[in-house]
TrEMBL record:
<keyword id="KW-0067">ATP-binding</keyword>
<protein>
    <submittedName>
        <fullName>ABC transporter ATP-binding protein</fullName>
    </submittedName>
</protein>
<keyword id="KW-0813">Transport</keyword>
<dbReference type="InterPro" id="IPR050763">
    <property type="entry name" value="ABC_transporter_ATP-binding"/>
</dbReference>
<comment type="similarity">
    <text>Belongs to the ABC transporter superfamily.</text>
</comment>
<dbReference type="GO" id="GO:0005524">
    <property type="term" value="F:ATP binding"/>
</dbReference>
<dbReference type="InterPro" id="IPR003439">
    <property type="entry name" value="ABC_transporter-like_ATP-bd"/>
</dbReference>
<keyword id="KW-0547">Nucleotide-binding</keyword>
<dbReference type="InterPro" id="IPR003593">
    <property type="entry name" value="AAA+_ATPase"/>
</dbReference>
<dbReference type="Pfam" id="PF00005">
    <property type="entry name" value="ABC_tran"/>
</dbReference>
<dbReference type="InterPro" id="IPR027417">
    <property type="entry name" value="P-loop_NTPase"/>
</dbReference>
<feature type="domain" description="ABC transporter">
    <location>
        <begin position="6"/>
        <end position="229"/>
    </location>
</feature>
Amino acid sequence: MPDPAIETRGLTKRFGSLVAVDRLDLAVHRGEVFGFLGPNGAGKTTTIRLLLGFINPTAGSSLVLGRPGADPAARRRIGYLPADLAFDPRYTTSDLIEFFGSLRGGYDRPFTAALLERFALDPYRPIGDLSTGNRRKVGIVQAFMHRPDLYILDEPTSGLDPLLQQEFHRLVREEVARGATVFLSSHVLPEVEALASRVGILRRGRLVTVAAIDDLRRKARQRIDIYTAGPPPRGLFERLPGVRAVSYHDGGVHLVVEGSVDAVIKAAAGLTVERIHTPGQDLEELFLEYYQGGDA
Ligand SMILES: Nc1ncnc2c1ncn2[C@@H]1O[C@H](COP(=O)(O)OP(=O)(O)OP(=O)(O)O)[C@@H](O)[C@H]1O
């Protein structure tokens, strides 16, 4: 087994009496997309700043690609997209590309040109003249231009419209297919769900769970509304495996199901079903329980 792409041991950061990151033990495997989720202020950005060596831990340690994050040899192989981009507004994207390119000892020119085109970014406009969304694109280009082994992305699509978010997701998937590792920090569940195979959930600096998205999905409750031609017979769904709540109405039945919905669908097959609606739920509720300290 190669080293993990990211490894932390007891990583801790205090700001005065506040423990922003609390004894974090984490291993992100090579080639995976690891979602790092948590509510605002949970300590995600502080963790990233520790990983990259921008700040020193109060206790514990971390390695990134087998080296301390501040090591230039590690840095060159990392693409970092910060949540708050602060570039000198007088620079153009082209200036920045050359600047970062020289810092990193080169970059992939054809790939970068294709990225500019893909995100419709004019490289010759001063960054100060760009909209928030376009500035975000500059951040993406600088994080991806050297095709690093590890991407550390902090709230990557905030400020991007849905089409660009999709484009960004495609780009991430292509890079993962090439073998890159992605550490994706976000408080937005759908983004993490769309890309990550595993997630770690941080609450008040502590890692409350690390799980495969598929396992969480199996655990998550789903709401299903089945609309039928006539009132459904009472008692049809109550005893089926996974069914946690049933409420009937004239037009059908509302169900809450944990895990597989197979038994419910098979039972419904005996009715005249006009419409099925599954109002989201997905992982959102489960995550909120983790966020709020429930015992999910
Ligand atoms: N330099 C600092 N000095 C003092 N407190 C800090 C500092 N940086 C972060 N904090 C505090 O540490 C805690 C964690 O902040 P952090 O920015 O890491 O959270 P986050 O999970 O990234 O949140 P968000 O999703 O809002 O970006 C917060 O309470 C924050 O106020």
